[in-house]
Prior knowledge:
- This protein is mainly beta.
- The chain folds into two domains: 67-154, Immunoglobulins (Immunoglobulin-like, Sandwich); 168-273 and 283-325, SPRY domain (Jelly Rolls, Sandwich), CATH 2.60.120.
- The chain has two helices and 21 strands.
- The strands form four sheets. It has a seven-stranded antiparallel beta sheet with strand order 8-9-21-12-17-18-19, with no helix packed on it. Strands 10, 11, 13, 14, 15, 16 and 20 form a seven-stranded antiparallel beta sheet that branches. Strands 4-3-6-7 form a four-stranded antiparallel beta sheet, with no helix packed on it.
- Keywords: Coiled coil, Cytoplasm, Receptor.
- InterPro entries: FN3_dom, FN3_sf, Ig-like_fold.
- May play a role in the negative regulation of cell cycle progression.
Amino acid sequence: MLGGVGxxxxxxxxxxxxxxxxxxxxxxxxxxxxxxPCLSAQLDDSILNIVKDHIFKHGTVASRPPVQIEELxxxxxxxxxxxxxxxxxxxxxxxxxxxxxxxxxxxxxxYVGSETEFIVLHIDPNVDYQFRVCARGDxxxxxxxxxxxxxGHSTLVPxxxxxxxxxxxxxxxxxxxxxxxxxxxGVLYSRAPTYFCGQTLTFRVETVGxxxxxDSIGVCAEKQDGYDSLQxxxxxxxxxxxxxxxxxxxxxxxxxxxxxxxTVTFDIEAVTLGTTSNNEGGHxxxxxxxxxxxxxxVFDWLLDQSCGSxxxxxxxxxxxxxxxxx
Length: 326
């Protein structure tokens, strides 16, 4: 096909000749029954019912798995896996998700529960992973056959907190920060400006400590030392009491207080480039949506200059707060 001669051209000619005489979407030939090895037996209906009862005590016979993975979405340091039921007659009680590196021979459980979506964390960038899911029928103990494995990977750089900052202890992958007992205060920033407009930045509060109105979780245009909170200029954040701050000013709208298990998300999009026509001092406008506990606030954030990427950060005045970022 690339212009070869001789034998390669003969193969191509043979293929095109065959295609013009055979319907490529036709079914394969069905062999004669005498050519197929088989074992047949004549059973009474009563025996057939006994056999059926024994089979259904141990499992079921299905033409395909009742659930399949429908979508893989890359995240910084993770992959969101979504699956759906493809058998309308199957009532699922629980789902079981497994994954492995494509170079590994062993699948491991990563989720068991009733949800049809889960984010798999601790994903190395630019590495292929396989995912599969099965289900357990309502009132049954055994699991269904596995879905067809799907391959996914993330090209996004994982979000990491800055290591070595007194006052916070980090996990081995530096995506979880724990406020320790140190009396040192200040803002713990990301290692690099890894958040880009158009993405969703997610903070999940694993454990909580004593709240303080000066606490903050948010994003900023640049790191600024000497501040105890992100409640300052060139930053947007939410306090643990639910108050929202834009460039150091508290908004009228407020979100629910942050509790253990709360998820706070930031979605930011560029609105305008160039000089704005107002007198608020900003020259670059971003549209920010902060969501928490099924509530959200939307506002415009004015910056002095264009930012291709942003830092994220957090600050807590009392120990016990643990935050995962992805």
